[in-house]
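Hi F.,

I've been meaning to write this up properly since the lab meeting, where we talked about keeping a consistent format for the predictions we share between groups. The idea is simple: the sequence comes first, exactly as it goes in, then the structure tokens exactly as they come out, then a line or two of notes. No screenshots and no reformatting. I'm using this chain as the first example so we have something concrete to point to.
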Amino acid sequence: MAKNGAPADTWEFEAPDGRYHVHWMLHIRSEHREEFERKLARWVKAMAGLAAPEKLPDGALHVTTATNPEGAKLYMAKGIDPFYGTLWGIRLLDCGMVYGRRAGTARSLGPAIWKPLKRAYQARRKVRPAAY
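Output, unedited:
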């Protein structure tokens, strides 16, 4: 297993006005943050075909701490089908045409993991009768 634990991430590609970019929310332990940012820059440079001395353009990477993960989740869903966006109260925006998968989530965050956890949480939260 990776030293940061099982992958726990979600991502979404957008291409408004033909400008492709990705929003990626993932769990990184604080003690691994600097190492992650260095590796991310090297990975993006390799994917872009940049040689070692070349630098990424200013603003190519923006890494920040998610202070409101629920809000970030809704922001990442802003390109959802309008029927579902309206149903779930998501402010919709045109995210452009993306070929292939637009979004994804790690298996560690999938229903096989969260459904049993949710059932256990709900069972613990049930109000017990007061003892008189």
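Notes:
Residues 9-106 form one domain.
Strands lie at 9-14, 21-26, 103-105.

If this format works for you, I'll send the rest the same way.

G.
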